[in-house]
Request: fold
Amino acid sequence: MAAQKSTLLRNGLIVTMDNHERLLRGDILIENGVLTQLGQVDKKNATTIIDCSNLILLPGFIQTHTHLCQTLFRGQADDLQLLPWLQQKIWPMEASHDAETMRISARLGIAEMLKSGTTTIQDMGSTHHYDEIFEEARQTGIRINGGKCMMDFAETVPDYLLEDGKSSLQESERLIKTWHGTENNRLRYSMAPRFAVSCTTHLLAESAAMARQYGCNLHTHASENRDEIALIEKRENSRNIDFLHKYGFTGEDTTLVHCVWLNEHEKDTLHDTHTSVAHCPASNL
Reply:
């Protein structure tokens, strides 16, 4: 039987984030990765003691939208609008990843977030090599909701990233069965069609159904750019949020990312369905 490991964070200024928003000077005991005591803790209970007298102890930050697959692309073509940025820069670079470079990209992105106090992330990958991202999350200890992105609409997706819808769903299901709920539920899967522009209605509907079958979240981009919205209006005769709502991409289990260009009806839809929105100021301002 493995020996119990415990760490005592001693005499720190604790930001509790409890219902009373208390700040207190005290200790935190961590046993086998679980916070078990807060307050004044007997140091005899700890195998490791860390003096936190000059430190602030607070819950880890949560990053609600990341692309660990894009860490190495930072600063590329920041002067381009969304669709040219994707088509000319990001998609070709994503396609160039092999398993090793995907691991490096994920490792660097996770290290940067952990260093700045982020301990939980929601991530969207590329169409391939998502096992590598989960493996890096497993090794580093970060908590992740993540999944491969899905792209099967031939008219808008380049050949080098274009998936067959059935194969994309099968790969997502394999990843769910491999990773979802592992590491004491620290690693969880999110179904992640990239955005309405890159997906068929079949893929969207089946993704939503699969997420609910396995108890996963839904995670996609929406209404980040007016050209994106115009494409959906022309193709589907629908506003972006209405289109996603029709195929199951609203609800308490759904995060829509950006949502910059919404009309009042779309805002009401998100409110009424309790859909979460992840704003990205650094991307959109």
User: Anything to note?
Assistant: The longest helix spans residues 99-115. The longest strand covers residues 6-15.
